[in-house]
Amino acid sequence: MSTVTIPRPSKPWGVNFKQAIPDVVAAFATLLITYAIVAYTPLKGKLAFVIVLFLVAVIASAAISGIRRDRKAALNSISTVMIYVAGMFVIFPLGSILYEIIRRGIGGLSLGMFSTDMAVTASDAPLSEGGLIHAVVGTFYIVIIASLISVPIGILTALYLTEIKGKAAGTIRFFVQAMSGIPSIVAGLFIYAVWMIALGNQYSAAAGAMALAILMIPTVARTSEEVLKLIPSDLREAGLAMGGTQWRTVAMIVIPAAQSGLITAVILGVARVAGETAPLLLTMGGADALNLNPFAGNSSAIPFYVWKNFLLGTETAIDRAWSGVLVLMIIVLFFFSLTRFLSGRKGRF
Amino acid sequence: MSQANPVHSLANVAAAHSASKGDHHIAGTGIEAKNIHAWFGDKHVIDDVSIDFFPGTVTALIGPSGCGKSTFIRILNRMHEFIPTAAMAGEVLLEGKDIYQSGTDVTKIRLGIGMVFQKPNPFPSMTIKENVLSGLKLAQLKVSNQSELLESCLVRAGLWNEVKDRLNEYGGALSGGQQQRLCIARSLAVSPQVLLMDEPCSALDPGSTLRIEETIRELSASMTIIIVTHNMQQAARVSDRTGFFLSDGGPGRLIECSSTSEIFSNPKDKRTEDYVTGRFG
To answer: How large is the ipTM?
Structure first.
């Protein structure tokens, strides 16, 4: 009877502790050299430190790989460092914005602010008084109404462009692209001029939502189009070959297959408009009191609330503005997580 | 000559196969293509092809790539027209009626003429069960006993034993060969009279290929099957009749079409013989 020894599972492609030592040493050396350069030369300040660190890191990593292997390895490590730095350039501002919002907004955050509005609270009243329920409700209204308008229109436009491929497709694609370049204030002005002045309607959350829908439609349409284009034509043909009409094939096969991408399109659309302020200034009128009717009367939204409080300029008002920003961020995060959760349960592609 | 003749070995396979089949019961509806031409833009790709596909037979279409076989079978269930530059001439008769006659209900035609594609393409958002029954929903058909239909389709496609405990898993989780049999089961659910198969085994391993060939043999008792294949052995094993397509740089033509044993043992045309013996192509 022979005993079979099973080898221990290992990851020979990984970096083991011994091999990592020179890299760790090199990283410390890089930091030390950078520190020395900044300390003993006229270069001063944080910015200089970052730039010198970058240059030293590039040179050091290229030199190490060059000595260890060859020129190709040196070039490879230079581009690796560049890519890491580019990544940090993207993440750093995002991280610092998040940090700043949380740091300055957390102080004004309390449960009470979600149950009261600013109707009877003075701008310099302590943070324990007043709240932003009116703005939260307004933001929910406009995001939901704008989505109800623009998601069907946007997705149907994308279906026209990818499935029907009608004669007008080129023209429509051009206009959708042009529309995505509209400055948000122009969308606001358009609704103000047409809906309010020409048609004589008053300020309302719905008017604000209409302005946002104008901004949201091109985002939803273009993203949906890209997603639908990725669905293999094999699937459409299989549906048609089984006696499905075009509409049933699209509804039963194409859209479910593209589901998670379409959800992303909606999320990007909401992200585009949730923080918009300019069009709301013209269409919602602003309010300090809670207005539960989305179709009539001045109402507020969180970006509006933030803008107004910064403008007031008192110390507590500015604190309120920061917590408004934080609340907006939390609400947007909540929206995204909810849609991701709902879409993640079924359908995969 | 001591050298084994490839013509004879393939011919033996074909002959043995027709013998075993004997005079089988003829069922289903035939389909007849008359003087078919096809164009993509200005390019003439099929030149005057006429084939009568008899009820209850398997017809293999062979020939080198680019000779119009796939285009030809896509004409048979009106899938050709989805390519924007496509044009055609000729008639395709199903139950004596031209399917290109104006006023024909195209979805009904496609319901009667199923299709299995080269690449397995189960619907990704549907489970195995939903995939099989998808044709009913697509064509808005009512069936009294869905679970019976589900089982019989999967049994006929030779997949039932492998998936009966996982009908609610997604189709994409199956292996390539299983996915292709799922696609066959899917097309069976709407009980087509004719089944078109466009190189159904080209992406599959020999085991799955064999499994699908068995399925084709079993299905041919109840329907007319047309299969495009690049695999000569497969044509010899599975078909009753074989059509050989060839393009000499211009449009594809049907060189000859007759019983499979004839094509492999006693072809009329020199080019057919050269192709089936592997001298070119």
So the answer is: 0.82
